[in-house]
Amino acid sequence: MLRGLGQWLCRICGAPTLQSLQHFLNDGEVVSAWAVAEELLRSQSTSLKSAEAVASLAVAAAATGRLERAAQLLEVLDTPDLLQGSAQELAGVHSVRDRILELLAQSRGEGALFGGENLGVDPAPKLQVPETWCWVAQLPPVAEFVGPLEIRWNEGCERGLFATRHIFPREVLLLARPLAVHSGVWAYSTAELVEQLLDACRNSARTRCQLQCLTDGWASRAPPTLAVASHALWPQPDSQPMESLGSFLTREALVNVVDRNSFHVNSKTAIYGLPSMINHSCGSVNASANILDPLGDAILFRAETEIAAGSEIFFPYFKVSGSLHRRRERSQAMGFSCRCERCAFEADTLPGTNAAAASKAAMDAFESQLRDQMADLRDRPEEAGSHCMPLLQEILSHTRRMALAMDHSWREREVAWYLHLALPLYWCGVWCCTQVWQYELLLKAGEMSVSALLQEGDPSLSKCAVTLVAARCELLLQMVLAWEHTDRHSYDHLKCCYMLYLAFMEMCKLPLSSNHYWVPLVQQEVPLWRLEERPQHAKHATSTELYATSRLRCETAFCEKFGVGSDYLCLGGTQCRVTALMRTLHP
Ligand SMILES: C[S@@+](CC[C@H](N)C(=O)[O-])C[C@H]1O[C@@H](n2cnc3c(N)ncnc32)[C@H](O)[C@@H]1O
């Protein structure tokens, strides 16, 4: 009911007053608040000598992105005789100043925001201000930040975001506040987002510039150049628009902006400025995003991998598992046809090669019979163990044929995309290993424990164990590699890393297993391994060495995903936190 009080006060008083400024802030009309604040500063009003007045001006400045200006305004505190105000008000101003200094630090990439576990976000700090100062709620919950990035044209003649220096995993790439947010069902979000954008355009010159850069240019004006886009999309102070909305930001143009640039993350749909320059990739994903609910739905992008200077930043717009056909359907539903490296590999490089034939034969066999056989055995658990061995053998022979058909000139990520084609087959193989192992144990162990049985040195059981654990390691290694270059640090990738570590740990416990050598199936640094009695190639590793590598690989993946060290993760210990951390991804 009281909304619009700022306008009303301005109208009856003629000149802007502190009260109108505070009412604008209370109503969230921050751009009007800053217009009033500027007028007050110009008129050198005596009321500015009160602590509350200075704090209001600073809040209006900070709310429109002028953090430096806000901090300058509060510097007058260093000459307290300039200020009038109760002890409570003075304490309030200190609190506002501390918060603004913290925001300034964040905007330079420093500060507590970027610490902490998981999302790396601490709860938004509480301000110690007098109760009547409700207008301080307009202080931004988080400062915008842009890391070592720039906008450039990519090879597909699209604008993209590129690293300007080498970036390490977990580094914060950028943090942006939303232009519009919708928390409901995605399908119904467009109309609401467009209305929010129109509203923001009426009040904010900055939002208007940002949206102009997200359209494909506008009638009778040149499309935005990189320099224009970089200027408009970087954090900068806002102001009241000088001209009327004009014809170029129509509802139709904004529907197009929403369709092309919506982020669907953490059950929200939102539009952001600079993040809209990030292109999609089905492989080579090197960034992840989180919408931070407690911090005004700001979006935080982090590096997921090391990113070399000059490389493009990619974020997956949709789930990138599944066939080329499925991924094409998903990208087309979003209004474009994906031309990422992985899609180009599957569509142009692979067809007609031996590798394509081997993977097709493997997946045809899987889809026409192996999958059904597995489903059938799942329904008859009592018989599964005894029937799984032939199934496992067939799966292994397909995966080995696939490995041998690989082109030796492929880079590691191309090998990964290739292996990705047969992921369901690998999962099926891993399941079979478990079934046969349990069956053999039940058969042989009777009343005995596994370790006692192996200590006794039953040679047939040891041989069976080594074969099964080796098969498990082989399948899991290929799966880990497949995920490392597609949906890195996804739930499935982390699960495979952990299972691989467990498999090698089991391997090392088996009698004589450390004497077994694993040789690469392809003569390059692709970790595909086969158990052999004796090394025949120059490159080989023992199971013990591979156990150490798999442990490091698992710790690195969890460290990169959650920012936790190996002491915290405690792999293999009684306090092991793997499951708890993974539950945060898949509650
Ligand atoms: C959020 S924008 C990304 C920035 C965009 N490149 C630009 O210049 O404004 C999304 C649009 O970029 C293009 N795009 C992003 N990733 C792509 C990909 N992998 N293949 C083809 N086009 C892509 C599509 O036109 C898509 O609608």
Automatic annotation (TrEMBL):
List the CDD domains hit by this protein, alphabetically. SET_SMYD (cd20071)
* UniProt xrefs under Pfam families: SET
Classification via PROSITE patterns: SET (PS50280)
Outline the extent of the SET domain.
147-318
Report the protein name in the record: SET domain-containing protein
Q: Which organism is it from?
A: Symbiodinium natans
